[in-house]
Structure of Uracil phosphoribosyltransferase homolog:
Amino acid sequence: MEYESNDKDYSELEREYGIIEREENGKILYDSIKDCEYKRDELPSKIIELEKKDQVLELQTILRDSETSNSDFVFHADRLMRLVIEEGLNCLSYKEVVVKTPTGRFYKGLDFKKGNCAISLCRSGECMETAMRQCCRSMRIGKILISEKEQKVLYSRFPQDINRRQILLCYPILGTGETVIKALRLLKEHNVKGKNIVIISVFSTTKALIEIGKEFSHVRIITSDIGNVPFNFTQKYFGTD
């Protein structure tokens, strides 16, 4: 996977995503091949990758295409994020309920158990909030802001009873995993059990998944793709690329 040079500092790309710089035909290109140092058979067991159906591959292709306009990018990114979030909802707890149908009959089905919430890791995670509300309108959404350079928690806001809730932790690009690991440590300080956390990601590197799994083996991770990541995803979504 190749990326043409942009305004993002190269040292920052290398640190965050393992991007390696090279020159070709007078252009500076970036390859995210450092991820190849990590083998897929080393991945933790609590990972769910979306099945590579045609529509998933189409959405991933559009999001990786440098010619995709901002409006098209947002539209298709929201579609892919909804698919990942819907898969994450399958990891939450349900209870059996009985409802009355318009014909007067009774139907035995399922409903969410109370006590679910989502947390977006700012700023990147905020791009997933629209898709989250489209999938689950009543879901409470908290926020955690972590300084990427210093890996320091600058701000956090979530329900006081967070330790009793099941959490969808939203962060679209898992590059190194450092930011998510810092957020998981914060939740651990608030007595949140790893088995109650589901990380929702769009693109993930093998490195990030392995690093997260080393420290938090009970945390589940949902992603649409494992391998190279489009490092400009958030900038493109918010139109700041």
Q: What stands out?
A: The CA atoms of residues 81 and 163 lie 26 Å apart. The chain has one domain: 37-238. The first helix runs from residue 10 to 17.
